[in-house]
Each structure stands twice: as structure tokens, then as C-alpha cells.
Amino acid sequence: MSSANTRPRKKIQNMGGDIGFQQMSKVQIGGPVRACRLWPMVLCNLMWLVVICAGLYGNMADPQPIPRRVKHPLVVFDRLFRKAGPFMPFTVVLPRMLMPNTGRVTSPGAATFLVYVLITAARILLYLLIDAFAPKSLADHILLGSSVYAILSVEVAILLKQMADIGKVKTDEECSDDDEDGDLCGVGDRAVARSQPSGHSPLTRVIQLGRLVVLVLTITLAAAVLGDMYFTARYFHTFHETIVTAAAGMIIFQVPLAAWSFNTRVQ
């Protein structure tokens, strides 16, 4: 008799009672898992702090008055960022959301998108308030950068999680041949495996390539934001304006969004 027929069938607990093997797939397709990795968000936010601190250090060491005359190497991006900055993250968010799911992790959808919209709306509202009541006391451009960078850092973490997780869902045959796969061989995961493309299928490879392209674009956009923030902190705002606004951006946008995203679970 084959191992597939002799393998003990698992049961799961539901409201204090056992549910048989045949009923499992009706209860849940896959268990909830984290939507993104923690370390990319931590690394991205550390890079943000390093860039802001580098700008502040150069700011203090330069005796010239603010704003200083400088040839900005990212002047084209800076002008575009001032006009359309709040909406730039959606150029990478929407392509990621439109891609089919593969592997065990479902792409975060409507809830995450709504949070991004709320962050964008909050950023625009803060701009209007700052412009009306305190136009000279805060570095609004850095607050804009903080709101955009917060979204981009989460998107990097989501994409890395999805790309690394692909292929972890196994087929019925693979699960039957290995008794030590644990959760990756549950009935829910078999159902997911049957409903999604194989980790080695041509479609999955195309999806992975698409994710890689979106990841590169996201990192490139985040790097451009960092570069623009360095020159903003270094040449165009006082030490006080920069440090207060950067701290406000971390408190309002970056830390809350990273914490919420890490604690978000998807099927």
C-alpha cells in the first residue's frame, strides 16, 4: 500500500470539537500568515534616519545661510515630487495588487490600499494646515518624503515576502511523500496549491519576474526620495525645521504604518 494511503489523516480543532479530514477544506483555505517581513521595513527606516542625520550634519558644518545655493542633481525628480509626490507610491502599489497570487501569501489588498489612501489624505491635510498656520516653522518637503517613504518601505517588505514564499505550498503528491512538512502540507494548503499556479510553472515565473520589476522600481523610487531628502535637509531648511519635521513624520507615518503592516495577516 502506498504512503499516501497509510499516512495518518490529521484533524483540526474547532470550537472544542474535532473536524474530520473530509470537512477540513470547508472550514479554511490556508492559515493566516503575516503579510510582510519585518527586517526590510526596519532597514528602510534606518536608512531614512541615516540620510536625515547626514543632511543635518552637513547642515551644521556649513556656515552659509539657509537656503543655500547648490546644484541639485535630482532637480527634475524634486520638481515632480513637489507636484505629484503624494500619489507616486500608487504607481508601484497598483501593479503589485493586480498580480495573481502565488504561494501561501495572498497579496494584501483593499485594507492596505485604504490605509495608504488615508496616509495620503492625512499628508495633504497636514500640508494645508502647515501652509496656512506655520509655513516657516516646518520642513514640509520632508514630511511629504516621510509619508511617501513609509508606503514604499512597506511595499518592499510585502514584495520580498511574496517572492520568498513562492513554492512553499506543496501539491498532494509532494505532501504524501513527506510526513515532516507540518503546516505546509495541511489540507488548506493543498487547496491553495490546486487553486494557484505551480511554483515552477511558466505563469508563476512570469509573475515572479513582474514582482521583481515592481520591486526594482519601488527601491529606485525610495532611493530617489532618500536622495531628495538629503539635499533638502542639507541645503534648504534649518536644523530645527528638519529635525522636528523628520521626527513628526516618523511618529505620524512611518512607525505606525510599519507596525500595522507587520501585524496584518492574510490568508
Written account of the structure:
The protein has 267 residues and is mainly alpha-helical. The protein contains eleven helices and four strands; from the N terminus they run αββαβαααααααααβ. The strands form two sheets. A two-stranded antiparallel sheet has the order 1-2. It has a two-stranded antiparallel ribbon with strand order 3-4. Strand 1 and strand 2 form a beta hairpin. It starts with a helix and ends with a strand. The N terminus is likely disordered.
The portion of residues assigned to helices is 55-70%
**Could you give the count of β-strands?**
4
The fraction of residues in strands falls at: under 5%
Mind describing the biggest β-sheet?
2 strands, antiparallel
Keywords:
267 residues; mainly alpha; two-stranded antiparallel ribbon; 4 strands; elongated
List the helices and strands and how they pair.
Layout: H1 3-6, E1 12-14, E2 17-19, H2 24-27, E3 33-34, H3 39-61, H4 75-84, H5 90-98, H6 110-133, H7 140-165, H8 172-176, H9 187-195, H10 202-236, H11 239-263, E4 265-266
Antiparallel strand pairs: 1-2, 3-4
Q: What does this entry show, briefly?
A:
The protein has 267 residues and is mainly α. It has eleven helices and four strands. The longest helix is centred in the C-terminal third of the chain and has 35 residues, at 202-236.
